[in-house]
Amino acid sequence: MNQPEIYPDNFHLDPTLYTGRPTDETDRLPKERRTYDLLDHLGIVYWRLDHDETFTIDACHDVDTRLGIDICKNLFLCNAQKNAFYLLMMPGHKKFRTARLSKQIGSSRLSFAGAEYMEQFLDITPGSVSVLGLMNDTEGRVRLLIDRDVIDHHEFIGCHPCVNTSSLKIRTDDLLNRFLPAVRHSYTVVDLPWEA
Fold first, then answer.
1. Is 117 exposed, middle or buried (CB count within 10 Å of its CB: 0-12, 13-18, 19+)?
2. Strands 142-147 and 187-190, how do they pair?
3. What is the pTM of this model?
């Protein structure tokens, strides 16, 4: 059976894996530059791959391969009342079931939060959801949830620098022990099952 093409014919993946920020930031958005500023200030080493916009985890397949990692799925969620917001990091190819997560965190039914909340709290837009967006959550409105498989089995994580035209490879330990304390966020470990 033929698989559908993930990328359009005009998808462009810069084959160069860069260490650190771009040398020419003329066309980079301020939120992307701020992300690099913080990572550099914290002394966190990261590798960068530039590419066309990616909007889904499936569209990141070639990015994963080039970075030598699995890109994490980052889901921005809220409860039914829209007064509690969550950022869930989980392995990219693990299926997400809201009922399993809701029970673990003691929340009412979860759903995907609207783009307006994403921009308001994390200064990101759909398709560029990233744990690095927590640097913009200065009021602590978003609770970070990390699937245990990300912590236990991934030496590196892949994420966007608050835009979906670049992807970064960062040591998981640096994210947990340097980045998160610097942006005053803790995290809750959740156990989401793999499903056939």
1. middle
2. parallel
3. 0.86
